[in-house]
């Protein structure tokens, strides 16, 4: 049994129900809108965040309608944010496939993203739990704030790990945190367990983003983006930040600032990537990622022997071992 199958095993039946609900939520009588929604449905991934919602719910109780609608609300919000992000970043690809804005246009992409956001809030209301509605609303605010914070960091002249993690906590980690927390809330878990679920999700999200940032240093058609893609957008992530602070090399710092200002050539970015790799940036990022993995696993110690716990452990291992 591969890792994905092990992760899904305790919620396989429920996941099939969720997929049907997800498909049904992305429909419209408007032909143009339906065309775009159908394309988005074809691009759906492994449903890692809905799986986390369901696993966490099953760890603390029995899945119910609130669990399904919370998972759907979060997945729709996440998908809407990706559609909008590709417009902001002027991206032509998303995980190896053409982005919505590349096939249609920016105007259509923004409007479809707005439609999905509204649909997300509709399903949040279907949970019948104001706490879950608030959780989804706060997530939407965090994602927007994270994007603005990331744009602000591009204008900074320093290379701060704290600033890097602040962005992650508002973006990727916020999604995983909300997923784990909503699963616990949906089944009426106690406050201490909700807190543990929330922290577990955040730790997974941080590890997930560090892994994504490591991918940026290696060219692979599987990953769906060329080497240095983040840097082509002015983003410096953990491997680079570590090396810049370790070396404090004035010429390298100057190049890093020009990368942030989108003034560096493709060749200069390629040279910068190799320097970061040679100076231990990837090794440092991998160690940091595994530190967060170990902290997440530590939170599962109270539930050892539980089948759901084994799936959650496989989940965090998958996050740090995946190849795309």
From TrEMBL:
Cofactor(s) for this UniProt protein: Mg(2+)
Protein name per the record: Polyprenyl synthetase family protein
Family affiliation: Belongs to the FPP/GGPP synthase family.
CDD domains registered for this protein in UniProt: Trans_IPPS_HT
Record-linked PROSITE patterns: POLYPRENYL_SYNTHASE_1, POLYPRENYL_SYNTHASE_2
The organism's place on the tree of life at top rank: Bacteria
A Pfam family of this chain: polyprenyl_synt
Keyword annotations: Magnesium, Metal-binding, Transferase
InterPro entries, per the entry: Isoprenoid_synthase_dom_sf, Polyprenyl_synt, Polyprenyl_synt_CS
GO biological process, one term: isoprenoid biosynthetic process
GO MF terms held by the record: metal ion binding; prenyltransferase activity
């Amino acid at each position: 049994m591969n890792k994905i199958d092990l992760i899904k095993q305790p919620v396989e039946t429920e996941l099939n129900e969720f997929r049907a609900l997800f498909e049904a939520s992305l429909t419209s009588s408007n032909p143009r809108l339906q065309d775009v929604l159908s394309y988005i449905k074809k691009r759906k991934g492994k449903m890692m965040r809905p799986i986390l919602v369901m696993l966490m719910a099953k760890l603390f109780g029995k899945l119910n309608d609130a669990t399904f609608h919370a998972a759907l609300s979060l997945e729709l919000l996440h998908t809407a944010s990706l559609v909008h992000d590709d417009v902001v970043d002027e991206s032509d690809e998303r995980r190896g496939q053409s982005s919505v804005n590349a096939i249609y246009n920016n105007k259509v992409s923004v409007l479809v993203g707005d439609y999905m956001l509204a649909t997300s809030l509709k399903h949040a209301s279907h949970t019948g739990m104001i706490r879950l509605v608030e959780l989804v609303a706060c997530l939407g605010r965090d994602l927007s704030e994270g994007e603005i914070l990331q744009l602000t960091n591009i204008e900074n002249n320093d290379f701060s790990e704290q600033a890097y993690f602040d962005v992650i906590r508002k973006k990727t980690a916020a999604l995983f945190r909300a997923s784990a927390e909503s699963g616990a809330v949906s089944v009426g878990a106690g406050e201490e367990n909700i807190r543990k679920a929330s922290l577990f999700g955040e730790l997974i999200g941080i590890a997930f983003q560090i892994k994504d940032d490591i991918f940026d240093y290696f060219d692979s058609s599987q990953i769906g983006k060329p080497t240095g893609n983040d840097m082509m957008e002015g983003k410096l992530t953990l491997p680079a930040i570590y090396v810049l602070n370790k070396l404090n090399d004035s010429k390298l710092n100057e190049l890093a600032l020009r990368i942030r200002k989108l003034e560096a050539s493709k060749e200069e970015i390629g040279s910068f990537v190799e320097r970061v790799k040679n100076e231990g940036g990837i090794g440092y990022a991998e160690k940091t990622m595994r530190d967060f993995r170990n902290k997440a696993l530590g939170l599962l110690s109270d539930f050892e022997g539980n089948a759901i716990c084994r799936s959650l452990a496989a989940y965090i291992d998958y996050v740090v071992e995946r190849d795309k």
